[in-house]
Amino acid sequence: MSQVSVLSVHKQQRTGFPCTFEYGDFRIDGKRLYDEVLRQYPHMDDIGCLGFGPETFQREQIGKLLLLENADFPDGRRALYLCPACGDLGCGTVSLRIERRDSQFVWHDFGLQSAGDAPETVTPLPDLGPFYFDADAYECTVRSAYGLGGFHWPTPGP
């Protein structure tokens, strides 16, 4: 059995386009996962897929991470980080594969991907994962992000 990591989701504030708002930021064993993405691709400007947007969007994102909803991409990959302005997959995402193996969820095969890209055009993020999470703790953590930053799309003020 592989080493089990601890997933947490922390409220993170984003300042910049389209406005200042809060969302759920992923940490694995206490380390911010997005920092690892930025180490490989320092010009990325995505946010974690949890804790922002209307209730239906948030429920859908939680369902995708729990494998209760269809994947974001036809090749079975799921978006973990996405566009902060609209959440559109065409703007580019950090995607991954998620599997349920017995009493664990596994995150692996991280990469950069956009809607409409052919599966072979996924740009790998080779220094990320795989990560193994206890299934019960993982589900509790993912569900805890519901409403973390409120229930609205980030929109510029007047």
So how many helices?
A: 3
Strand content: 25-35%
Mean pLDDT across all amino acids: 91
Helix content class:
10-25%
> In terms of per-residue confidence, which ranges show pLDDT below 50 for 5 or more consecutive residues?
none
The major pleated sheet works out as: 7 strands, mixed
Task: State the secondary-structure class.
Answer: alpha+beta
Q: Terminal Cα separation, in Å?
A: 54 Å
**Overall radius of gyration:** 15 Å
Silhouette: globular
The quaternary structure here is single chain
Per DSSP E runs of 2 or more residues, the count of β-strands stands at 10
Instruction: Provide the succession of SSEs.
Output: EEEEHEHEEEEEH
Task: Write up what this structure looks like.
The chain has about 160 residues and is an alpha+beta fold. Helices cover about 20% and strands about 35% of the residues. The strands form two sheets. Strands 1, 5, 6, 7, 8, 9 and 10 form a seven-stranded mixed sheet that branches. The protein has a three-stranded antiparallel sheet with strand order 2-3-4. Strand 7 and strand 8 (about 105-115) form a beta hairpin. The longest helix is centred in the middle third of the chain and has 11 residues, at about 55-65. The chain is globular. The mean pLDDT is about 90.
Write a compact overview of the structure shown.
The model has no long low-confidence stretch (mean pLDDT 91). The chain contains 3 helices and 10 strands, in the order E-E-E-E-H-E-H-E-E-E-E-E-H. The protein has helices at residues 33-40, 55-65, 135-144; strands spanning 4-5, 7-14, 21-28, 31-32, 47-48, 78-82, 93-101, 104-113, 123-124, 131-134.
